[in-house]
Amino acid sequence: MRPLIALRGGTKVEEAALALGCDVVHGSANRVLDSLAPDVLVVDDPVTADARRWMAAGRRAGCLVVSVHDLGLGCLDADLVIDGSVTMNARARRGMTLAGPRFALLDPALVDEDEDSRDPYSVLVALGGGPRAELAADIAEAIVDAVPQATVRVAGGFVSTPAHVRQQITWVGPARSLHREMARASVAVVGGGVSLYEACALGTPAVGVPVVPAQRPTVAAFVARGAAKGSARGPVSAKHVAEECVSLLSDASMRRNLARMGRRLIDGRGAFRAAAAVARLAAAGGSR
């Protein structure tokens, strides 16, 4: 199905949704739902007040209401709550709950990604753009200082490539996804968000970096389960992150173990399970 999406934000946000293949609808919650009369309303909004407004409008319109969560943030008053977080899962107050990493909502294309061309000394650093670009650059520099044969690709979003870049370091421009980059890498340095889940699903050994405080519980949970390296305590240090990468580059057995544990935790099929659950619930009479 082609998704219809109502968004907060300006023109750039709408253009991004259109580029991803979505149809963007405009108007208040009541007007949109009354005019479209959907069978299912999916709300993905960590702001409880905004989520509750849409969910109430959905119920008035006779929709099955599904709420998607991360770390339990958002409104839990739904017919179906989906929270694929590794830790701090949400539970529905009145309906069904799909909780835990089996229901992590990742791009289904991940399961088809080819990983046969991994370079044993390749590293992907993907911490996002903006102020994180400087941290990514420092990590990349420290890695190639310690392992001269390493090649590091830095995904810096819309950040301009620095004027002085080492030969072993390449800056990658904006892309719809980093799946291919991640599948090619022997080690990935990622934030504590969706990219950490994606690395595990792809079997790419990952070092998790909590680039914002809210990501600390996720990184800690992955590390505790043996599915990633990293630390959720204290300030983020480029030197420490680089050391974690170097230890992985020098130990193939450790990389294999992290890849195995990561895939055991995150198999990349959560979206299929969630979609099947929504379809079953709708077929059972939850829709208009």
The average pLDDT value, as a whole number, equals 89
Q: Strand order, biggest sheet?
A: 9-8-7-10-11-12
Order of helices and strands: EHEHEHEEEEHEEHEHEHEHHH
CATH topology of the largest domain: Rossmann fold
Level-1 CATH class name of the largest domain:
Alpha Beta
Query: Whole-Å distance between the termini?
Result: 18 Å
Low-confidence stretches: none
Specify the biggest β-sheet.
6 strands, parallel
Task: Describe the overall structure.
With 288 residues, this protein is of the alpha/beta class. The chain has two domains: 4-104 and 269-286; 109-265, Glycogen Phosphorylase B (Rossmann fold, 3-Layer(aba) Sandwich). The protein is 39% helix and 16% strand. It contains ten helices and twelve strands. It has helices spanning 11-19, 29-36, 48-60, 132-146, 179-184, 194-202, 216-224, 238-249, 252-265, 270-286; strands at residues 4-5, 23-24, 40-43, 64-69, 80-83, 96-99, 122-126, 151-155, 169-172, 187-191, 206-209, 229-230. The protein has a six-stranded parallel sheet with strand order 9-8-7-10-11-12, sandwiched between helices. A four-stranded parallel sheet has the order 3-4-5-6. Strands 1-2 form a two-stranded parallel ribbon. α3 links the parallel β3 (40-43) and β4. The model has no long low-confidence stretch (mean pLDDT 89).
